[in-house]
Amino acid sequence: MEEKLINRAIKIRLYPTLEQQTFLNKSFGCARFFYNFLLNERLTFYKNEIEPIKENKELKSEKYKQFKPTTKKQFKEQFEFVKECSDDCLNSTERNLHSAFSNFFKGTTKFPKFHSKKLHRDSYKECHLKVNAFDFHNRKLNISKCTPIIFRRRQNLPKWYSNKCTLKSITVSKNPAGEYWASLLFELPMFYSNQKPVSENQSIGLDWSPADFYINSDNKSGKDYGYVPQKQAHHKQLTKLQRKLARKINGSSNRNKARIKLAKLEQHIANSRKWWLENEVLRLVRNYSLIGIEDLNLTGIAKFLRNAKNVNDCAYYTFTEKLITKGEETGTAVIKVGRYFPSSQICNCCGYQNHNLKLADRTWTCPNCGTNLIRDLNASINIRNEAIRLASNVPMRHGKLMSVEGVENTLALQALDIGVPVEAERVNCETTHKAAIL
Fold this sequence. Notes:
- The protein is about 45% helix and about 20% strand.
- It has about 450 residues and is α+β, with helices and mostly antiparallel strands.
- It folds into two domains: about 190 residues, no CATH class; about 130 residues, no CATH class.
- β8 and β9 form a beta hairpin.
- α1 packs across α4 and α6 runs antiparallel to α7.
- It starts with a strand and ends with a helix.
- The C terminus is likely disordered.
């Protein structure tokens, strides 16, 4: 058993009074206004000071050093109404803008955009918390400059919650349906379960399918376990509400009512999808010791398929991330097979690779052994076999595999019959797959 600090969150539905709603809406507005103010300040500085001297690097660096953005204190002196919201509201906004620029210069995200009120997605974070900020017994949430807000949670607290948990932050948000929520972030020690012994009977491979979510190596699909493409199932209701919204006059009360109805239906679709994903992940990690999955680029796949609605509706990336996280906690090994592994082209009986296989070929006969193969079932079996091969060749710890250097050292020591080093760098499964095929 290995212990380390991890983060876990609880999301609760808030039921504020009219006065509390006014306070929260003011806080959301101040956070949005402060973010846009700082962003506009930086853009204006760049346009007026940096662009004319773009080619002069020395002068440009001096200008950047001289630039001093507006502080929170100066902003409050300039706009008195901002004092009504908490300090953490402005602090978190400033941190968010700094993170947005950092991520942009790293190349991970696009350039920061102005926050719009029309998106109806507002939030701010509280980090300096009261002692009794989360009163579960009385179902009350205490945040700065606001009376205790009532929340409802019928279920008990999750199993991981204990006295060792430390409440780190509270993020208050409002979704387009007009619902108020709070996400409570806890820090706690996590004890990983020991790795389950890998056996062929307790192993399974999952081949992604746009219509059935997946086809597993037991010739069963996601629909056999209750999968429903939610947007396709609610297509008529969505079309009807979208048509009604389009007919309303911009800025009218009736348009806002129609928008809320549409937002509530979309929220119901998202919740239904999330509920099935979490239950399916729990079922898989409880029943299997090894799960092989594909590493796919569904955004690129959706651009070249006619059934792109099903591709975007399944949330397969969320499913794989939840599967990996839950696998670490339960000791189930979850291995991502390489993106370019030809799972559909290889015969699972003799290993022959059919390079002429097309996407329209749902069944094919192996010219080497004469076996009739179903494309998706054959691919899932190959994914399972590849995952077993990787698991048997490469040592694992808590569902994650060793780095390239760790694999090379381990294989060398095993060949000399010396042993295996205890400490090895842990990285993702894609790196390990690359190491295994070297």
